[in-house]
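Supplementary Methods. Inverse-folding protocol.

Structures were first reduced to a discrete structure-token string of length 666. This string, shown here, constituted the complete conditioning input.
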């Protein structure tokens, strides 16, 4: 087998030991024969007593108070029960040797992982520590094509693993790569994670591949909550089937629960009593269900845009719907002091729920016109979208004439609030701007490729990018978004929506939109982030030029450094120039020449990829104005959302701006 070696661990508090065991001193130490020591040994030795577990996942605890021990053991999905227990026992022995007195430790074996702690670790998605391993074997042929095949394989495996149940979240598969190579891949989460957290963990792991393993034929990324591996050789066997009728047992959490075996007589007595009782309860339940079904239930019907081909109706779970009184109290009766934004379709308020959670509430005005359509559209979309780079919908309210959307609160306002202000832009150094460029790309890639539905946003712009407490970007405003079929590449509409300066030419002129329309808008965003200039209305001498004209002119003249924001003098010039290059590729007039967001992510993550030469962008003022219809004569609003400072300064135009999601800070 090809040799492998360790790269690094991202968490500085971890002691790196030989092998794959990590010992965390920050969580405290224990002594031999202490209460925690005895609880931990009892817990780890109990795995083999759980005969009913044949799916390779053990999550139990033992003890009381601060000396309580928690453990998670998970095996690869092709391991039998005996193979799994042997692997976990080997990991137990390794941890005993490498981490003899640490209260928290983890060991990643090739076929299993074992983790224990003196705190509850069940159901928590944890990314650190991270261990990255790679093969020294180089990829044959085109690294770019290999990476594309690898990314496609891993995305498919993420979806399969995340869709698993509480017994197993695991997937394996293979893909063909150039030069007769085959990639074998594997993804796995601890099954106690939600599907959302599993996807987040695995996506984070896959994002490490370009850093650790670019150009290599194999690699591993290991995290406490998930792990991935790709390899030029098949390293796994057939996945063992799970019994569809056998749910996992409840987690055992006390001393006596570890000694329940051998009580068969008691079990039989309980069964004799339980069966008739259960039968009676079942009969009563069926009768109640019958009564409920007979009574019509109130439904909230969600439809798509008027020109959408589908007229789906969606009944939302009651857990998403908030009582109006709850939101009224949370916002202090929609007090002016809590208002953080005002748009054409209503106001946005800051609020706090009774559990302490900060929220942003959009209260649509009663005369918002087309707001009904966009309200329903956004609820339909956001309820199905979960990604760290998208604003998360918490719930909604429909009572009487009130229509409210409840979002997570994003505290740092919008991107345009910073990059277009000569003072505030200094807070965004190159590292933060590059983080924003990559985060927006990940969010759009999720919309286009990785979500359950293919979604075209149609109004990507700086004021629709919100920044969280760590200044990570979150895409907002899905009132104009369109659902298309997964295999559909483009569509047409008679109703043009969006913002001038960001709209692709085929969409602005002909109403033809596609994922490449969003790619165009993303390219404009990248150039705005690098230059600190708005896409429309930049002055050059006596002329007013749009940003794409200025960028293209400097690109042709070999003076592209002229467009870079002067505040970025300490940034990586190679990264800055590469981002400008990528931005120009995204705004090419020919939409077929624009890259997909998958390709954009590869370009951002791999510096070994040679970028093609861009062709002329769309809407260059000095050569394209004659062919661009006089669209500014259409009805428009000049609202520049995102901050009060930018509202009065806006020179951008939004066509048919029937969006319900204002881009003020949430």
């Amino acid at each position: 087998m090809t040799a492998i070696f360790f790269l690094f661990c991202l968490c500085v508090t971890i002691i790196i030991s030989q092998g794959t065991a990590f010992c965390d001193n920050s969580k405290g130490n224990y002594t031999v024969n202490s209460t925690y020591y005895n609880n931990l040994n009892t817990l780890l030795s109990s795995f083999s007593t759980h005969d009913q577990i044949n799916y390779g996942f053990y999550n139990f605890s033992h003890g009381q108070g601060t000396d309580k021990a928690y453990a998670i053991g998970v095996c690869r999905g092709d391991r039998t029960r005996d193979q799994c227990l042997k692997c976990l026992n080997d990991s137990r022995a390794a941890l005993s040797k490498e981490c003899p007195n640490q209260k928290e430790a983890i060991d990643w074996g090739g076929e299993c992982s074992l983790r224990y702690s003196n705190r509850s670790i069940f159901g928590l998605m944890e990314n650190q520590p991270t261990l990255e391993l790679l093969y020294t074997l180089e990829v044959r042929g085109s690294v770019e094509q290999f990476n594309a095949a690898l990314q496609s394989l891993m995305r498919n495996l993420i979806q399969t693993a995340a869709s698993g149940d509480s017994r197993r979240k695991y997937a394996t598969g293979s893909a063909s790569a150039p030069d007769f190579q085959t990639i074998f891949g594997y993804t796995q989460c601890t099954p106690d994670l939600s599907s959302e957290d599993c996807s987040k963990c695995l996506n984070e792991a896959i994002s490490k591949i370009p850093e650790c393993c670019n150009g290599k034929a194999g690699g591993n990324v290991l995290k406490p909550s998930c792990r991935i591996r790709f390899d030029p050789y098949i390293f796994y066997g057939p996945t063992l089937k799970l019994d569809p009728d056998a749910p996992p047992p409840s987690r055992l959490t006390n001393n006596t629960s570890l000694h329940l075996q051998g009580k068969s007589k008691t079990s039989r007595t309980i069964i004799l009593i339980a069966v008739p009782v259960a039968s009676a309860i079942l009969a009563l339940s069926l009768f109640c269900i019958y009564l409920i079904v007979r009574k019509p239930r109130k439904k909230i019907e969600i439809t798509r845009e008027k020109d959408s081909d589908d007229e789906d109706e969606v009944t939302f779970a009651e857990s998403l719907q908030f009582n109006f009184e709850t939101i009224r109290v949370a916002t202090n009766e929609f007090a002016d002091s809590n208002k953080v934004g005002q748009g054409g379709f209503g106001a946005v308020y800051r609020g706090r729920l009774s559990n302490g959670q900060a929220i942003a509430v959009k209260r649509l005005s009663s005369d918002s016109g087309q707001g009904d359509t966009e309200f329903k559209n956004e609820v339909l979309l956001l309820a199905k979208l979960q990604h760290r780079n998208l604003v998360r919908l918490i719930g909604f309210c429909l009572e009487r004439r009130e229509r409210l959307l409840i979002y997570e609160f994003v505290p740092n306002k919008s991107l345009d609030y910073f990059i277009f202000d000569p003072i505030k832009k200094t807070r965004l150094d190159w590292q933060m701007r590059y983080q924003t460029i990559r985060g927006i790309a990940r969010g759009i890639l999720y919309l286009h490729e990785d979500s359950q539905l293919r979604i075209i946003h149609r109004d990507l712009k700086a004021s629709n990018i919100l920044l969280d407490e760590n200044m990570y970007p979150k895409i907002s405003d899905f009132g104009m978004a369109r659902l298309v079929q997964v295999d559909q590449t483009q569509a047409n509409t008679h109703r043009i929506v969006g913002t001038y300066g960001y709209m692709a030419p085929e969409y602005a002129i002909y109403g033809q939109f596609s994922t490449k329309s969003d790619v165009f808008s993303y390219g404009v965003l990248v150039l705005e982030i690098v230059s600190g200039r708005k896409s429309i209305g930049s002055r050059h001498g006596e002329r007013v030029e749009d940003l794409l004209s200025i960028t293209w002119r400097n690109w042709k003249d070999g003076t592209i450094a002229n467009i870079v924001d002067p505040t970025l003098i300490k940034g990586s010039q190679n990264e800055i120039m590469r981002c400008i290059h990528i931005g120009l590729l995204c705004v090419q007039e020919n939409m077929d020449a624009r890259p997909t967001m998958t390709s954009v992510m590869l370009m951002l993550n791999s510096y070994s990829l040679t970028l093609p030469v861009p062709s002329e962008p769309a809407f260059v003022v000095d050569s394209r104005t004659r062919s661009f219809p006089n669209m500014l004569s259409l009805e428009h609003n000049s609202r520049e959302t995102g901050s009060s400072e930018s509202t009065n300064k806006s020179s951008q135009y939004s066509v048919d701006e029937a969006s319900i999601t204002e881009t003020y800070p949430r």
